[in-house]
Design brief:
The protein is an alpha+beta fold. It has 5 helices and 10 strands; from the N terminus they run H-H-H-E-E-H-E-E-E-E-E-E-E-H-E. The chain is 25% helix and 24% strand. The longest helix is centred in the middle third of the chain and has 14 residues, at 56-69.
Length: 182
């Protein structure tokens, strides 16, 4: 009998196991495959689902992996459909990405750039700064939003539009407690 258990956010373990299997069986070269197929744009939100399922360190791991492997110097792993592939990369490399149209929540992940600046309304600028960023340091150890500790694995659109600084301290070991605040 297949037994399951429930994690901190009430998601069945078997669902997380399926999601992990989905990524673990993905070819490193991202050629067309029946698992995570980055060139098939509808799956672009899937690595961010770990944030919603209470395992944001998994989002950080897989988004960094995709940024590093699916966007090689020789080009994209798929065709560019009206900018979707590039938009996914730019937002993900900055460390944020929306998942659901109409929802103001932007998921936070490990940026692959040291610093990003986004010009927003009223001449405000929203900055994302990755401290100790390196190819090995893909996990968020801690975060601050405008110099205050920040424990959420997402940020609201309104907070981005106010401007300010999201500071993410990165390390090579996952912090399985960061980002679980609702």
């Amino acid at each position: 009998m297949n037994q399951t258990y429930t994690n901190k956010v009430g998601l069945c373990h078997s669902t997380l196991a399926d999601l992990n299997n989905f990524f673990n069986k993905t070819p490193v070269n991202f050629e067309w495959n029946p698992y995570y197929n980055h060139s098939n744009e509808p799956v672009h939100v899937v690595p961010y689902l770990f944030n919603r399922f209470g395992e944001p360190w998994q989002t950080q791991k897989w988004v960094r992996f995709i940024c590093n492997k699916a966007y090689a110097p020789q080009g994209l792993v798929g065709d560019e459909d009206v900018g979707q592939m590039s938009a996914w990369y730019i937002l993900s490399a900055c460390g944020i990405h929306p998942v659901c149209p109409g929802d103001t929540r932007f998921e936070i992940t490990s940026p692959s750039v040291d610093k990003a600046e986004i010009k927003v309304s009223n001449n405000n600028v929203f900055r994302i700064v990755a401290i100790h960023n390196s190819p090995e340091n893909v996990y968020i150890q801690s975060a601050k939003l405008n110099c205050k500790n920040y424990q959420k694995c997402y940020i609201d659109y309104q907070d981005i539009m106010k401007g300010g600084v999201l500071e993410l301290t990165l390390t090579d070991k996952p912090n399985k407690n960061w980002g679980l605040e609702k």
